[in-house]
Fold this sequence. Notes:
Elements: H1 2-18, E1 52-54, E2 60-63, E3 73-76, E4 81-83
Antiparallel strand pairs: 1-4, 2-3
Amino acid sequence: MNHLKAIIVISLLGFLISCKESSPTSNNDDPKDATPLMQNGGFESGSLEGWTPTGEAAAVSISNTEARTDTYCAMINGAGGLEQKITGLLPRTK
């Protein structure tokens, strides 16, 4: 009986070792070479291109005087907001 248990354990180990762990796939190994999926993420077009105002749309504006970095920023006052639908995301990618 112990001989049979040893064979089963060895068989299971062989199966587990032969199975490759699935790894994430990506067209680009280096993230800096990837195509951005977010459009106009830093508002550097000077517009709300790619963004949809929500809530009080009049409360959202683009400014070139208040930006922390670069040239432009979005300013949201009151109950306004911005959203962007991002498509093309694949599970388990870098």
